[in-house]
Each structure stands twice: as C-alpha cells, then as structure tokens.
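Priority: medium. Attachment 1 of 2:
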C-alpha cells in the first residue's frame, strides 16, 4: 500500500507527471504551474449563482457535534432536542431569508421558477414553507427524478416536522409508498406523477405541484412540465375577474426548481413566469486535472482516494462513479487496502450511494462521520444535485456517468440501454461544487484539462435520446399524443415513429393509432409496455403466477446472479441445478420457486445460507418478492387471477414472453450466429447465459449488452461495430445477449 500510495502520485508536481513512474500509475494531477489559472477555474463555478462564504459555516458544524454527543436522557427529551436542533438548522439555511418572498410569489402566480445552488434548502424547505403558511389547498406534490431522492428527502422532512414518515409527509415511488390519509406533502418520482395523471388527468387532488431538479430534463420531467402547462390552462382558466362561473375549479400552483442557470428557458415556457434566485453558499474549490488520460477510472479513483487519505487533512471524500457495479468494485478495493493501514492511521468508512440502495444503507451517508475517521462516499450522479451530503471536502470525479440511450438502429427498437458516457461541463462543475459546501475544498478530476474543454456544455434533454414507448402509451391513455403535446424540446420524428411501431406491434394501438382495450390494460401495470404485454398474454396462456415471478425478477434492481468473478467456477456449478433447457427466464423462475418453497418452511437465517450456498443474490429475490406483491395487487384491482400457474410446462411461459419480446427475437444463421428479426444486428449469446451449447433455431431476449474487449473482436463483430458507430465507445466492441 505504501508503495502504491506514496509512490504513485506526484500530485502538485508537474515534473513527476512526465516521469516514467507516472506513466504507469497515471493518476497524476496538474496543479497548474500558473496559480492564476487554477484560481480562475475555481472562481468559474463559485461565481456561478452565488459566491458567498458564510459566517455560520462553523456554527453549523458545532451543532452537529452537539447532536451526536447528546447520548443521555430519556427518549422523549432526546427526540425533542433533535427536533430543536433540526429547527435551528432549518433557520440557518440560505433559503430561510427568502421564506416570505417565496410564499408570496407562489400565492400571487400560477407558476414560479426557483433557482438555487445545491444545498441551499429548496427541496426540503419550500414544501414546508407552503405547508406552514396555512394556505395550502389540497395536497402538495414534489417530484424527483430518482427514487432514492424521493424517499430520503421525505424521511428528512418528516424528521424536521417531528412526525413519523408516512403521516404528514410521505413518498410514492414505483413499487413502494409510505402515505396515509393525513399526508399533505408527498415526495414522488416524476414517473409516479405521470402515472397518477392516468386516473386523475387534472391532478385535482393537488393544490401545489413542485417540479424539482427540472434542470435534469428527464423524459418524465419534461412530460410533467408539458402536462402541467395543459392542466394550468384548464384549471386556472376562470381566474380572471369577470369569469366567475368557471372559478368552481380549485386553481393549481406550480413551482419549478432548478440548480443550474437555465431559469430563463423554464420561465419562457411558462409564459414568462417570475424567477426567484436563492443565494447559496459556495466556497472556493481548487480543481486538479490528471496530466494524462486514465484508462481505468476505478483504479485511478482508488489511488487518488488513498493519496488524499495520506496527504490531506481530515474531511470526507465524495467519489463520483457511473454505476452500481463500479461502486461495488471500488468499495471492495478501498476496504481491502483500509485493512492494511497502520493502526494509528485515520480510519476509513466507505458508504455507497446509488439509486437502488436499500433505505437503511442510505442513512449511513448522512450520519455524522465518527471521530478519527474519514468517510468515503461512492456515489452515482445522484449526489450531483439531488442529494446534499454534509462534511464533504474532497471530490474525486471520474468524469463518467450512465446515460439512457435508445439505440434504435442497433436494437431494432424496444428498450433503452444504459451506456457509460462522458459527463458534461455542467455536471463537472456541479460535482466540483460538492466539495465547497462548508468550506474551501478540492476536486480531483480523473481526466485531463483538454478532456474537460472537449465536454459538451450540458446534456441533451432525455426526450431527445430515450425510448418514448412507455410515455406514448401513458399519453394515449389520457387522450393525448406525442405530436400534440407542447414539449419544451420536441422529440425526434424517428423516435416518435419507433414508439408508434412498438405499440402497434404490441397491439396497444391499432392502425389508426387509436388506443386498444389491450393497450389500456397494459398501462395499468407499472411496467415497461413490453413487460405489461407479457403479463397480459400470460392470462390467455394460463401462467400468470409464473410470468409475474419472472417479470418481478426482471424488474428488480439487483441481478439474481451477481458476477462473483472470484468464485466463478463454484458459482456456475452451484447454479447449474436450476438450469432450465429453455433458457434464462425459466432458470430464474426455477430459482424463485425454490426460494419460495424454502421461505414457506424456513426462517431468515436458513434462507440466507441457502442463497449463499447457491450463489444467488437474496437482495434480488427479496426485492422481486415486493414487486410481485405489488403486481398481484394490480391484478386484483383489474380482476385478473394471478394465482394460475402452468406448473412444469414451459410452453405457455415462452409463448407469453414472445408476445412482448417479439421485437427482440433472432434467428439462427447457418454460421451459428443469430440475426435479429426486426433489427439489423447480428448478435451472440452472452457467456453468462444458461442457454449455451446446442444452438436453437430462434431465440428471444430481454437485454442487449455491448461488450468491449479488443480480444473478442471477430470479423462479424466489426461489421456490427460499423453500424453502431454513432455511439462513442472504445475501438472494439461486440454485441452479446442474454435470452431465453
Ligand atoms: O434542494 P437543495 O439542494 O437546495 O437543498 P436541500 O436538499 O433542501 O438540503 C438542504 C440542507 O438539508 C442541506 O444542507 C443538507 O445537507 C440538509 N439535509 C440533510 O442533512 N439530510 C438530508 N437527508 C437532506 C438534507
Ligand atoms: Mg434539491
């Protein structure tokens, strides 16, 4: 470890960057030879919205310490002290000074745009201000692009209100909710709000809808914004004096919140709605770039973390990584090396943070860092703006993110693919800003300054790059269409065509583009249209119970068979007993059935042991169990019998799967490869698939992965590469698939 850490980084030393050692261990930072330049870059983002150091920064820290030290006393006194402390913290947030102005603006306008630095208090405070002002008619909804944000913010705001989560303040995300009749403030994902609109097109239950993180411009956020514009026209139409008759409707108030400087565009979209600026606190952040580009950003992040750990004063580190797999692999490496630190060294506490992390684990991220410890948070871009983590002094930015892409040309349509892509300048600046929340900080970028300069300014709205199938189906259910809706940015014609084609192939719409009864039933399930079609097909094929289990596993955020490369052979052998000759989906079903059987008779411990022995991921099974319960609930509400099973027969299940995956079918070619039926690509079976060995005449699959490895390229793969060149990836790639 010593060698790796001390020898690897010649940070702040441009000379070492050129040395041979640094070539091998390339995460070397250029502290600009020219002091001004570095300072200039730090100023570039501190000058953005607000550049105010605060006299209360120190005070806030002390308060947290007091909170942690408050160990004695009875539980009630403790709770009261906690509430008091939270109230003090609330009062000190930058947004607190603007409280009255915000309440007034919302009362006076249909739409208010609020722009504010991350951490200034927008998300947690504005709903409370409106609630506490006593003027709130009906429910208040506040949308988040991500589940974790919705659930953790609802928990925080409940605490601040001194009430249990799910009473006054609750949340609703796909497959999970905590609400009651008492709930007035509801944190929910933007997708959930869209879903609610199918049953309540005018959102009559809500008096206020806040669209948070609007700058992210996810497809769902854009849909919500467009829908709100329509609803405002209807609900607030009779507001002008003299039109008394129509005033019977309760008016809707909309607040759009953003963390970047794009307020003007939102304001224009909503007929020049007023913009309120919240001054935040942003201390200067010194930004370092690597001297050379990094091939392995996980390894570079590991080295950089330990460089900080050894060379820099106490302060937590936030590392931005693209996804869960990278987070898990880095977590393991950091822990391994942490064990080798000298006994008197500062301890290391690693906390992962990604969208599908279980709630209990999330809270560790926000808990005060124990004494003589450095917290290291490994996060996806969720920590960029939606979640503020206190105590962060150092940011390590890999410069990568996962981005939804709809690869029509490659996949022949259907699902979105998550691709690891370079971030944008705007993201890079937000990430760096996370280091300067409570005092001056440092940001280490694992890419060169040239790479930064080459980044796009901000990302393209998702409506321009993701699949519109599910959105189109939802719109159709409320009598709308992609073409007629007033988007902030219009989707591409090709993407609209592709969504129409998919819905038509699934029988959700007819040749006249009218929604069919089948399509309407599909929309009642919180599933991708393809999966919803599979579920409904299973009713005819009399295998609903089996298909729901499979779809639940496919919808779970963790893989059922994690790739434990360390024990790959053992794992493969242990899992072999579940193998179904027809393929992966039925193999998954076998695992789920075995687990269900065990659950009926055995306790928690036995289940855990069983999962460990068989190398299956219990988290995936538990999550799938919850999803299955939800899906069964929807079946009951729509009077479908979910208990019908086809037993050991695989025909009905395969038939149902094919119904939804017909765009994801491929036929065997004479040379042993598979050619897509409705797409241009030649594909291969993924090595991790259970369907290996004898080739079958036709296959269906629900996932298409791109593997990058120079060694794996064949002439055919090159041909595939040519037709997928519009995606920026390493030079060589090939397509594989997991299928049934
Ligand atoms: O939305 P915005 O980025 O403006 O700020 P916010 O999410 O309302 O957060 C305001 C403050 O509450 C920040 O200083 C957070 O550190 C704190 N907070 C927290 O301590 N724990 C949470 N779970 C959420 C917020
Ligand atoms: Mg926020």
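Attachment 2 of 2:
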């Amino acid at each position: 470890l010593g060698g790796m850490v001390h020898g690897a980084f010649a940070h702040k030393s441009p000379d070492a960057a050129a040395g041979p050692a640094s070539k091998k261990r390339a995460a070397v930072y250029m502290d600009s030879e020219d002091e001004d330049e570095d300072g200039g870059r730090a100023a570039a983002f501190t000058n953005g919205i607000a550049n105010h150091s605060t006299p209360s920064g120190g005070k806030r820290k002390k308060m947290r310490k007091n909170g942690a030290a408050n160990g004695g006393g009875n539980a009630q006194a403790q709770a009261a002290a906690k509430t008091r402390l939270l109230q003090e913290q609330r009062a000190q947030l930058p947004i607190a000074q603007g409280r009255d102005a915000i309440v007034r603006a919302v009362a006076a306008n249909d739409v208010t745009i609020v722009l504010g630095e991350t951490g200034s208090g927008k998300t947690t405070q504005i709903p409370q201000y409106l609630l506490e002002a006593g003027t709130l008619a009906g429910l208040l909804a506040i949308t988040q692009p991500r589940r974790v944000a919705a659930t953790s913010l609802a928990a925080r705001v409940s605490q601040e209100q001194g009430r249990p989560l799910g009473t006054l303040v609750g949340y609703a995300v796909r497959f999970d909710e905590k609400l009651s009749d008492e709930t007035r403030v509801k944190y929910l994902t933007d997708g959930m709000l869209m879903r609610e609109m199918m049953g309540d097109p005018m959102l009559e239950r809500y008096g206020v809808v806040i669209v948070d993180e609007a700058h992210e411009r996810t497809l769902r956020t854009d849909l919500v914004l467009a829908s709100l514009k329509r609803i405002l026209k209807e609900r607030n139409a009779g507001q002008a004096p003299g039109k008394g008759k129509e005033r019977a409707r309760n008016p809707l108030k909309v607040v759009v919140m953003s963390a970047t400087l794009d307020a003007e565009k939102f304001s224009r979209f909503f007929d020049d709605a007023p913009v309120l600026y919240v001054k935040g606190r942003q201390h200067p952040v010194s930004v370092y770039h690597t001297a050379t580009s990094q091939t392995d950003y996980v390894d570079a992040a590991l080295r950089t973390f330990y460089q900080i750990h050894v060379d820099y004063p106490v302060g937590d580190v936030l590392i931005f990584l693209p996804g869960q797999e990278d987070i898990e692999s880095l977590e393991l490496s950091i822990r391994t090396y942490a064990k080798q630190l000298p006994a008197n060294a500062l301890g290391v506490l690693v906390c992962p943070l990604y969208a599908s992390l279980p709630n209990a684990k999330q809270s560790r991220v926000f808990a005060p860092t124990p004494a003589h410890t450095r917290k290291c948070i490994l996060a996806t871009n969720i920590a960029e703006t939606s979640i503020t983590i206190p105590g962060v002094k150092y940011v390590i930015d890999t410069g990568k993110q996962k981005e939804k892409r709809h690869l029509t040309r490659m996949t022949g349509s259907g699902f979105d693919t998550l691709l690891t892509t370079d971030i944008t300048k705007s993201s890079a600046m937000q990430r760096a800003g996370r280091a300067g929340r409570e005092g001056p900080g440092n940001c280490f970028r694992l890419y060169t300054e040239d790479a930064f300069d080459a980044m796009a300014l901000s990302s393209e709205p998702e409506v321009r790059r993701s699949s519109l199938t599910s959105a189109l189906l939802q719109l159709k259910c409320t009598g709308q269409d992609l073409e007629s809706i007033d988007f902030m940015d219009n989707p591409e014609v090709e993407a609209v065509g592709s969504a129409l084609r998919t819905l038509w192939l699934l029988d959700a719409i007819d040749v006249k583009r009218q929604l069919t009864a089948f399509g309407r039933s599909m929309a009642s399930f919180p599933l991708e249209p393809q999966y919803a079609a599979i579920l409904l097909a299973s009713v005819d094929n009399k295998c609903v119970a089996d298909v729901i289990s499979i779809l639940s596993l496919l919808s779970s955020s963790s893989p059922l068979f994690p790739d434990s490369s360390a024990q790959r052979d053992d794992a493969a052998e242990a899992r072999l007993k579940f193998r179904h000759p027809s393929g992966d989906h039925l193999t998954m079903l076998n695992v789920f059935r075995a687990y269900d059987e065990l659950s009926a008779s055995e306790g928690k411990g036995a289940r855990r042991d069983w999962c460990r022995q068989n190398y299956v991921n219990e988290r995936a099974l538990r999550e799938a169990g919850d999803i299955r319960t939800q899906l069964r609930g929807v079946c009951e509400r729509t009077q479908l019998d979910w208990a019908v099973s086809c037993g050991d027969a695989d025909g009905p299940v395969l038939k149902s799967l094919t119904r939804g995956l017909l765009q994801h079918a491929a036929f065997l070619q004479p040379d042993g490869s598979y050619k897509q039926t409705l797409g241009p690509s030649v594909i291969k079976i993924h090595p991790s698939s259970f369907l290996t060995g004898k080739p079958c005449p036709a296959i269906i699959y629900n996932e298409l992965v791109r593997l990058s490895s120079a060694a794996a390229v064949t002439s055919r793969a090159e041909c595939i590469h040519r037709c997928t060149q519009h995606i920026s990836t390493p030079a060589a790639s090939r397509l594989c698939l997991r299928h049934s």
